[in-house]
Amino acid sequence: MRQYTTRAVDIVHGSLVVDMLGLLTLDWRKLAAWQKSPRGVGPQEFAKLEVSGINVFHPAVELGAHEPRAATARWLNDWRVFLDRDPERFLRVCSAADLARAKQQGKIGVVLGMQNSSHFESRADVAWFHALGQHVSQITYNSKNRLGSGCIERRDDGLTRFGISIVEEMNRVGMAVDVSHTGERTTLEAIEASGKPVLITHGNCKTLSPHPRCKSDKVIRALARRGGVVGITSIRTLVNPSEPTTIEHALNHFDHVARLAGVESVGVGSDTDLDGRDRRGPRQRLRFDIAGLNHPRRIYDLTEGLLRRGYSQRDIELILGGNFLRALGEIWRC
Questions:
Q1: Whole-prediction pTM value?
Q2: Which of 11, 88, 212, 278 is most deeply packed, by most CB within 10 A?
């Protein structure tokens, strides 16, 4: 097991650590078993969550369902039952106070969100899903929906009238607007339409990697001016367009956002679970993981890297969770 400096360990232990796209597991069969079993997460698996140093996870997904409204309701209900059944170990996060409470009480906090808003069939659905426990919603996934255009569309037509009404209603009920997979024009128009900070829960910088999922400097500046935060991923193809790819390349994205928009605008959104994505057998062709950011204690490696880059303790505390705490406090206050 790798040894970490006392300073890095103290910073992690003293910080509220939020992974704004962190999965408890990418093994969907395992997740289903946890949710169905009265015992929930086994001792060994829970110990892995505890030693990670991460206090709050946001395990949002895109379901790709034929009937997204019904599927999303089932997904949220399964999560609510699972979390509320185990209040000694888990905390369902519904407010900024809950974020801090997870840290204070030594529980694993979970923010319920979705990586698409296709389940919003009407403006009234926003309040309905919020009541079911959803507190973050991504405007689009990669493709177009009724709200706007995703990042892989050949033409981005921007935020639709329906999309504007949904953003307004999300502001009203206190649901965070996420633009991680949204196209450039739709992203900028969502930021403009929102009266509250908008989040990129998991994204990277297009200046450093030209991947469609990465965000331009124009977007990052616009987001930051309104109080938004960019959660940097550790996904190899989003971090560096060529090989080799190391943790230093990931740190470059933290540096870029901090220099461009201020350290108050950058956070963590790993887009993976504690074991990484590269464990699916010999048929897997693409590599996703970056050494050092693909294991349960990766947040300590990240902290060591930020210290190497000269960030102060206060700066690192903001990056690890303070910035998302501030932004979500503004968004969820309604």
A1: 0.97
A2: 11
